[in-house]
C-alpha cells in the first residue's frame, strides 16, 4: 500500500496540489486516543480513489471534478432532494450549537466573581503594561527603533488573551492609517497563523461530530493544520468517495467558554458607558450584542454553510467572484467541509487589483440584496489563478434593511449636492434618529464639517475621514446608530485598509462612484428615481454636466446599460404624477432646442465669406443675432455638452438604434404628444422674441471722418 503525507501551507488555502505519498509519518509522538481501537495520526491509508464521472472545465483547458455543491453540495454530486436531506442531517448534528443569550451569560458569570476578577486583572495587566512600554519608548525617544519589538509583543499579547483579542488584532491588521507598517506585518499573522490545538483533539472532534471513523471519510488528510484562526483550524484533505480535495475546518475546544467571559466583561463595560458617558448617545450594549451575536453564529458551522450557500446564490453569478461549495454530509456544528480553493491572499502586491473587485462586490452586498460579508480581512479573501476573487469564512454575515439601502444611496446623492438639510432628514430613514428629534441644529454641524472636508470633490474623501467626521457629529447630538451600521463600517473599513496597503492615495468613495452612478441611472425604484431627479435638477435648470459625469462614471461599471438608463427616465417623465417634472423638462427642452438653432444660425453665418455677407436685418454688421461673443460662447458650450451626453449614450456597448423603439412607443402616448407641442411652442416664442429684438434694435452709428 502507499501512504500519504501532505505538506502544509497558509490559510490562503493555496498550498498547491497534494504531494507524492511517502511511506513514513513525521517523527511526532502522539498519545493514542482512548476511544480509538488503534492509534491514528494524520496519515491514513491511501486506497484507489473512485472518481465521480461528472466534470467541468476549470478554465485552463483541463477538467476538474464537479464538487458536491454544483447544485448545492452533498459530496458526490447528488440531486437537489439528496442535498436537502444531507443538509437536514447536518442541522440535526448541530442541534446543540451554542446560541448567544446575554441573560444566560450574565447569570453564569455573575455567580463566579473570582473568575471574572482574575480575567479582568489579566487583561488590564497585559494591556496596561504594553501601554506603559509605549509611553516610555515615546518619552525616551526610542519609539521608532522599538516598533518591531513592540509589534511582536502586541501580537503575542493578543494571542495569549485569546479569540476575542485576536479578532481585535485582525481588525487592526488591515488599517495602515492607524497602525505603523511594523505592526501591520505582525498583526497580519493573527489572520491565519495562530497557535494550534492538538491534532488528536481535532481528529477526535471530526469522528465524534460526524459519527464515522476518519479513514472512512478521507483518503488523505494533512498531519497538521494548514492554517489556524481565532475560532478553529483548517486541514487539507481528499474525500474518499469522490477524490474531491476539500478544506476541513475544526472548531477549537472550549471556545464558547473562552469568548463568553470576555463578552460578559465587555458587555458590562458597555453598560457603564451607557450609564455614565453622556457624549456617546448610541446604545453601546446593543452594538456589542449585535457583534457578539454574529460571533456566536460563527460557532455553528452548519449556519456558516447555509450562509455560504445563500451568499453564492446572490453573488457568485459574476464571472470574477468565486464561492466554495459546502459538503453537507461531512459538516456539523463543529466541523465544516468545503471545496478547496487555490489562490493567494489579497494583501499580496501582485493581486491587489482585485481589491476594487472586492469593493464593487461589497457595494452589491450592502445596497442591492442587503446580505453582506462582515469580516472581509485578507485571510478570508483569495485571488485565484483564474483571476477570480474567492470569498471564504462565512461565519460573520449581516443584513442591511431595504429602507436603509435606498436611504444610503440617497444620502450619497445629498452629500454630492451638499444638501445638508436633506442629509439630516435621511437620518430618520436610516433609523439614526427618532421621529421626535429636531434636525434643525444638526444641519449647521454637517455643513461645518463637509464644507471644510469637501475642498475638492466628494470622491477625494477618504472613507475614514468621512466616518470620523460624521462620528464627531453623532457624538454631539442624540443619534442612536443601529447595530447593522457598525458591521457595515467594519466591512468597508477593512476593505479600504486593504486598498490603502496597495495605494496610500486610494479613495474608496471614488472607487464606489461607478456603482452609485449606475444604480441612480438604471434602478427603477421610486426612491432612487426621485434621488436622480433631485441630483439632475437644481433651481429649475437641468444640470447637463452632472448627467455627463454620471454617464461617464456609470459606464465604468460592467453592468451598466444605456437601455436601462433611458427607459425608466421616460416612464417617470410620462407618469400621471409627473407634471412638475414635465414642466422642468419642457423648459430645458426649449433651452436645448434654442441652443441648437441659434448656434446653427451663427455657424452658417460665419461660414459665409466676409465680403459676401449681406447686411442682415437692419444693417447690423455684428452678426445675425443680438448676442455678445460671450453669449454665443456660452450657448455653444451648452450645445456641445448636450451633444457629449448623447455621445456617451451612443458609445455604450449595448446601444443600438433598435433600443429607441420602446421610446417611440412611449412617446406616442397623449402626454408625450402634449409635451412635444409645448416644447415647439416654447422654442417658437423664444426665437420670435430674439428675431423681434434684432429687427427693432437701432443700427450702430456710422463713424464720421
Automatic annotation (TrEMBL):
Coiled coil: none annotated. Residues 220-542 form the Protein kinase domain. Residues 1-32 are annotated as: Disordered. GO terms for molecular function: ATP binding; protein kinase activity. Residues 1-10 have a biased composition (Polar residues). Belongs to the protein kinase superfamily. ADCK protein kinase family. This is Protein kinase domain-containing protein.
Amino acid at each position: 500500500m502507499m501512504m500519504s503525507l501532505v505538506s502544509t501551507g497558509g490559510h490562503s488555502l493555496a498550498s498547491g496540489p497534494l504531494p507524492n505519498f511517502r511511506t513514513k509519518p513525521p517523527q511526532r509522538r502522539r498519545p493514542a486516543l482512548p476511544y480509538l481501537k488503534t492509534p491514528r495520526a494524520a496519515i491514513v491509508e491511501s486506497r484507489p480513489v473512485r472518481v465521480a464521472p461528472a466534470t467541468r472545465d476549470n478554465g485552463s483547458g483541463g477538467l476538474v471534478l464537479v464538487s458536491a455543491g454544483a447544485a448545492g453540495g452533498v459530496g458526490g454530486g447528488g440531486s437537489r432532494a439528496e442535498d436537502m436531506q444531507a443538509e437536514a442531517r447536518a442541522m440535526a448534528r448541530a442541534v446543540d450549537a451554542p446560541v448567544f443569550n446575554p441573560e444566560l451569560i450574565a447569570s453564569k458569570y455573575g455567580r463566579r466573581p473570582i473568575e471574572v476578577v482574575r480575567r479582568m486583572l489579566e487583561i488590564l495587566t497585559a494591556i496596561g503594561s504594553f501601554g506603559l512600554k509605549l509611553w516610555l519608548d515615546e518619552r525616551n525617544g526610542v519609539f521608532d527603533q522599538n516598533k518591531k519589538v513592540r509589534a511582536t509583543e502586541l501580537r503575542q499579547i493578543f494571542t495569549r488573551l485569546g479569540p476575542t483579542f485576536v479578532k481585535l488584532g485582525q481588525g487592526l491588521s488591515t488599517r495602515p492609517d492607524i497602525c505603523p507598517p511594523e505592526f501591520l506585518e505582525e498583526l497580519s499573522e493573527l489572520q491565519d497563523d495562530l497557535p494550534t490545538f492538538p491534532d488528536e483533539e481535532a481528529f477526535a472532534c471530526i469522528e465524534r461530530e460526524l459519527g464515522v471513523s476518519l479513514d472512512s471519510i478521507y483518503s488523505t488528510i494533512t498531519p497538521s493544520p494548514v492554517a489556524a484562526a481565532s475560532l478553529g483550524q483548517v486541514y487539507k484533505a481528499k474525500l474518499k468517495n469522490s477524490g474531491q480535495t476539500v478544506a476541513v475546518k475544526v472548531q477549537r475546544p472550549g471556545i464558547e467558554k473562552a469568548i463568553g467571559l470576555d463578552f460578559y466583561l465587555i458587555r458590562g463595560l458597555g453598560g457603564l458607558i451607557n450609564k455614565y458617558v453622556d457624549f456617546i448617545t448610541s446604545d453601546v450594549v446593543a452594538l456589542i450584542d449585535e457583534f457578539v451575536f454574529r460571533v456566536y453564529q460563527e460557532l455553528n458551522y452548519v449556519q456558516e454553510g447555509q450562509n455560504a450557500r445563500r451568499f453564492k446564490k446572490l453573488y457568485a453569478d459574476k464571472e470574477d467572484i468565486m464561492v466554495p461549495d459546502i459538503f453537507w454530509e461531512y459538516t456539523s456544528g463543529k466541523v465544516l467541509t468545503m471545496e478547496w480553493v487555490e489562490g493567494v491572499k489579497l494583501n499580496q502586491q501582485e493581486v491587489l487589483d482585485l481589491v476594487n473587485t472586492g469593493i464593487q462586490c461589497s457595494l452589491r452586498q450592502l445596497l442591492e440584496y442587503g446580505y453582506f460579508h462582515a469580516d472581509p480581512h485578507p485571510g478570508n479573501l483569495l485571488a485565484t489563478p483564474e483571476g477570480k476573487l474567492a470569498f471564504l469564512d462565512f461565519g460573520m454575515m449581516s443584513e442591511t434593511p431595504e429602507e436603509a439601502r435606498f436611504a444610503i444611496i440617497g444620502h450619497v446623492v445629498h452629500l454630492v449636492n451638499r444638501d445638508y438639510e436633506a442629509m439630516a432628514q435621511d437620518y430618520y430613514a436610516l433609523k439614526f434618529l427618532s421621529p421626535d428629534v429636531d434636525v434643525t441644529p444638526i444641519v449647521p454641524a454637517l455643513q461645518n464639517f463637509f464644507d471644510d472636508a469637501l475642498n475638492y470633490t466628494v470622491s477625494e474623501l477618504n472613507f475614514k475621514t468621512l466616518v470620523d467626521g460624521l462620528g464627531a457629529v453623532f457624538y454631539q447630538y442624540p443619534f442612536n446608530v443601529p447595530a447593522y451600521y457598525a458591521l457595515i463600517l467594519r466591512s468597508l473599513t477593512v476593505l479600504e485598509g486593504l486598498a490603502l496597503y496597495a495605494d496610500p492615495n486610494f479613495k474608496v468613495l471614488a472607487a464606489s462612484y461607478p456603482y452609485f452612478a449606475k444604480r441612480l441611472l438604471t434602478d427603477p425604484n421610486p426612491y432612487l428615481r426621485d434621488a436622480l431627479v433631485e441630483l439632475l435638477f437644481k433651481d429649475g435648470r437641468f444640470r447637463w454636466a452632472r448627467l455627463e459625469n454620471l454617464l461617464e462614471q456609470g459606464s465604468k461599471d460592467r453592468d451598466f446599460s444605456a437601455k436601462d438608463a433611458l427607459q425608466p427616465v421616460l416612464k417617470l417623465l410620462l407618469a400621471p404624477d409627473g407634471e412638475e417634472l414635465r414642466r422642468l423638462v419642457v423648459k430645458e427642452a426649449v433651452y436645448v432646442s434654442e441652443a441648437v438653432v441659434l448656434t446653427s444660425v451663427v455657424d452658417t453665418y460665419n461660414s459665409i465669406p466676409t465680403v459676401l455677407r449681406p447686411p442682415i436685418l437692419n444693417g447690423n454688421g455684428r452678426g445675425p443675432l443680438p448676442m455678445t461673443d460671450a453669449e454665443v460662447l456660452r450657448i455653444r458650450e451648452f450645445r456641445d455638452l448636450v451633444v457629449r451626453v448623447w455621445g456617451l449614450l451612443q458609445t455604450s456597448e449595448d446601444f443600438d438604434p433598435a433600443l429607441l423603439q420602446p421610446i417611440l412607443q412611449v412617446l406616442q402616448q397623449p402626454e408625450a404628444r402634449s409635451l412635444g407641442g409645448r416644447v415647439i411652442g416654447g422654442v417658437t416664442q423664444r426665437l420670435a422674441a430674439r428675431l423681434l429684438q434684432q429687427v427693432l434694435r437701432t443700427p450702430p452709428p456710422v463713424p464720421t471722418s
